[in-house]
Amino acid sequence: MTGLERFNKLSLAQTCAELRRCCAAERWVKRVASGRPYVTVEELRQEAEEAWRVLDEDDWRDAIEHHPRIGERTHGWSREEQSGVATANDEARDRLAVGQRAYEQKFGYIFLISATGKSGDEMATELENRLGNSPEMELSVAAEELRKITILRLEKLLVDEPDHDART
């Protein structure tokens, strides 16, 4: 059975639980879940993108609240996505820690970046650069990073076995 076939056969409650692993924005979860069954992976991806476009700032903030900080002890997908921190040198880890505190103080939510394939130094540099953004600009940037993470995780969902204990 393909990942898409498995996804289409889940109960609504299971589907929503699996989609929350991708993105905690409840409007996004409900819209994508209600579009089943999907004929192709591309159809699912298009619906996920369309569902993303109708989210607002409250949805983005809700989803951001459910993400771990960069460098926190993580499980599952977050651990894989943040693997660049695990191999980062002490300087990069320190920059991330200091930057994240400043970021949270300035913007009121955690620093979010699509970390897959990025080194700890790259993430720290991006964090430092984004500290110069206005609150309005940064929420837009953070939302775009969240969109990238969401779509990447949706693709992983279709190849991974369900793991209801996995944390984002």
Fill in the keyword field for this structure.
168 residues; mainly alpha; 66% helix; elongated; disordered C terminus
Outline of the structure:
The chain contains 10 helices and no strands. It has helices at residues 3-9, 12-22, 26-34, 41-53, 57-65, 76-81, 83-86, 90-107, 120-130, 135-157.
Overview of this protein structure:
The structure is a single chain. This protein is mainly alpha-helical. It has a single domain (3-157), classed as Orthogonal Bundle (UraD-like), CATH 1.10.3330.10. 66% of the residues lie in helices and 0% in strands. The chain is built from ten helices and no strands. 29% of the residues are buried. Residues 163-168 have low confidence and may be disordered.
